[in-house]
């Protein structure tokens, strides 16, 4: 397995893995409009501060992705993971942990000091991230307000 920075040669394959993963349990997203998928993924991969990676196997096939962006803060540079995923058929094999470890090495070489993300308590990802050294922040809260009501 190898971590590579996302490039156009991996985009379509990464997109299909993304849709397959998040259309399955426990997320059950309804990604039926290909143009909407592209708009969402391009929001995460096509701007100046975006930084996205793929995990590829020995045959250079995409097995997973980490889509996010870098921001600068008074404490240093931070990589915010917006989407992290492993191909459904490859889950529960330790590849997510391998991916996070290798990803951290890439980020260290880029002088990035923190990795942040959000996830739901009710999905297996919560335990996965805790197992891989992420801690819940007691200083911040995620808030949302619907403006179309």
From TrEMBL:
Domain N-acetyltransferase: 1-149
SUPFAM superfamilies the record matches: Acyl-CoA N-acyltransferases (Nat)
Protein name: Aminoglycoside 6'-N-acetyltransferase I
Keyword Transferase: yes
MF term (GO), any: acyltransferase activity, transferring groups other than amino-acyl groups
Xref: PROSITE patterns: GNAT (PS51186)
Pfam families: Acetyltransf_1 (PF00583)
Source organism: Alkalibacterium pelagium
Keywords associated with the record: Transferase
